[in-house]
Fold:
Amino acid sequence: MPEAVIWQEVYNTEYVKAPECWKTCGGYCCKNFYGEHFNILDKSGVSLPLLEKEYEYYQSIGGIKNITEPAKKRTFKLSNGKSFSIYLLSCNCGGVCEPHGHRPLICRIYPYFPVVDASGTVLDFEYAALMDLFYRDPDSDHKCTLVREQSKRIKQELSISLKPLLRDPEVVFVFRCLKELVDRLKLKMNGHINTLDETQLKKFIAKYEWMILSGKPWKDAAFSQRIDDIYDEVKAAFGNKDFL
Amino acid sequence: MSLAKSIEQLICEKLCSKHGETVLSDLDRNASLITSGLLDSLEFISMLMEIENSFDLDIDFEDADPVQFTAMNGLISLLSENENA
Structure:
């Protein structure tokens, strides 16, 4: 049965248990390690997406004090008339967000997001940060220590701790869309950042910025149809009730 | 009006609506509109999408140099290339 997420519970849950892992990587997850090559995106900030209801909760508890820039709202319209919005926070806290307990879901589940079926069963995991998608042999080369050394444990724990969240069809829908989105992006980018020299890396990141911001990889009828299909599949799996 | 002029007008309108008309007098047309703080990344992309829709263009900067296309002169030059060809 569908159950709406209780965001207070989400914000009280420790999804990835790895205290002080940042000491081993310089806080990779909270910094824009490739930002020096960015020309359009924020060179130092990290973009954090929040679902609409998550953002409402985040706001209600006062947010993160040292994120001062207002969130940017982006609304996506499905061709079946439904729409959903996400809010993008630009975070420059570098890992010292205050209060730390107010950090968004995407930070809490880093380094992964779940790949799920229409009913919310976890099938696999994908990298939660877009730049992380472009490592060759990530299990050995990744800058995140958890990916390199503890991926099995982290994935097992996430499979259990994410279950309550995945009873909400909207969350399932968004994770499924996210998987489609990153698959398209990977196809378009077709490269690995850890195999490129400085010049190639600059070109790769210029292309990446253009792809992300223009939305070109996802602007076609086939992608729209796939998103509509995902909506219908999730709706069917959750008792045929509209959820957007 | 040429395409280049029309695009320039649209960009100037965007900048003026955000910063007031005086912005144009100090504008470095060869500097990035983003790093100079005139537009943020989302505003810049929204403006490109508006140009795309207004002038029925298919903008593809996949292989373009961002240093060029984020500056006003470079952007106008790239977008009006086809018209001049």
